[in-house]
Amino acid sequence: MLSNSKDDLSQLLREKGYKITEQRKAVLEIVMEHDGEHLSSQEIYELVKKKYPDVGVATVYRTLPVLEELGYVYTVDLGDGCARYELQREGQQHRHHHLICECCGEITEVKDDLLDEIEKKIYDNYGFTIKDHRVKFYGICSKCGKC
Ligand SMILES: [Zn+2]
Ligand SMILES: [Zn+2]
Ligand SMILES: [Zn+2]
Q: What digits encode the pLDDT tens for the residues 18-61?
C-alpha cells in the first residue's frame, strides 16, 4: 500500500500520465486533514476554498475521482444520497465499518475489522475469498440510548 503523502501523489500522477498541479495536491491535503469526517464533494470544496481560494469548484469535483482511481480515497455511501469521501488509510486491508445512529444521524467508525472469523467461515463454506466489505450498522448510539 502506498503511503498517503503529497510527494507520492506527484510521482503517482506522473506515472499515470496525469498533470501534477498544486490544486490536485491541495485537494488531497484537505481530505487528509479531515480524515474520518466523511465529507461530500461540496464540503471538500468549501474547505479547500478557505485555505486555497484559487482552487475552483470544477477542479475539486474533477480531482476527487482521480484521487480515487489512484487509491488515495474511496467513496462511501452512508445512505443520505450523496457520495462521501474518505482516506484510504495506510495498512488498511479491508474497509472499516460505520455505525449509523437512526436517532441523531451520528456516524461512528469501527476501526477493527472484527470479521476475520466470518470471512474464514465464508471461505470454508463457499470457497469465496473476501477482498473487501462495506458494512453499515443501523441503531441507537450511546448518547441517544441514554435519553
Ligand atoms: Zn475484513
Ligand atoms: Zn444518536
Ligand atoms: Zn469512515
A: 877 888 889 999 999 998 899 999 999 999 999 999 999 999 99
CATH architecture of structural domain 97-146: 2-Layer Sandwich (3.30)
Gap from CA of 124 to ligand 3 centroid (Å):
29
Concatenated DSSP letters for 86-140?
EE--TT--SPPEEEEETTT--EEEE-S---HHHHHHHHHHH-PPP-----EEEE-
CATH class of the 6-87 domain in this structure: mainly alpha
The pTM for the full model equals 0.81
Centre of ligand 1 to C-alpha 81, Å, is 25
